[in-house]
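FIELD: query
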Amino acid sequence: MKQKIGFWNEIQGDADNITCSKDEAPISAPKKSLVQVYFPKRGMDLSYYNDQFDLQVGDTVYVDGKLEGLRGRVTAVNYSFKIKLSDYKRVVAVADTHISGELHMAGSHLVSFDPQTIPYEKIITWFKAPDKEDDVYVSGSDDHSFRLDDLSGMKVTSAIAERGHDYYTENRVVYLCIDRGHGRGIVEGTSPYEIEFDYGGGEIKNLTCSCYCGYPCKHTFAAMLQLRETLKLLEEKDGFDWNEGGYAAAISQGAFFSFAVDGKTTGSFVFR
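FIELD: result
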């Protein structure tokens, strides 16, 4: 039997004809504010000046200064203030935590078959600050491949396999997506690590991770364990038949509720 969760910020129409409305672009400049931001990794609250975004309590943000790159959550917004700008750092980015669409339950994760519901470009903002314009990335790959149903082909050491299994059972694989055979993922470790791979015919190729390892790592092993489990659950519960031109994305329930639900005061759920 299928289990689904629908989540909308706004629902319009009658019970037989429900449509999702997307947020409209703001027509005026954001109101200047002084915001209090809590940083979980440092356990501290600090004040920042904001003139770029319409911030609300609960928003996930990134700032400049000494805590650049660290994820913070807005705990208070003040519009009545007078400050010396040189004394304050600024909010430089805000995560897009608006979700609109249908999600299917698949074990510890929620799955969407709609590329617009939980796209990688949206979800990555939940875990890391946007890249700077001068950031340069290079990658390489070899011809190595392995079967998803036989991860011994990854040729990881027993120690890495054990630690990767721990990451998998701890639900640190917070996101996975396959779009027309190309896969991406996010694994939370000491920082969020980005996984990329190609998938087709039951085989994984060109598997890479943004960590510093020059060999198959615990993050990729955990991601493959989660991918195998999720695809199996979808096939068993929802009759999902993967094809190389298809799309599917999965986000951990913990990450979904932590970012898309916790702290929000508006929105709707539809259980079926």
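FIELD: remark
The first strand starts at residue 4 and ends at 8.
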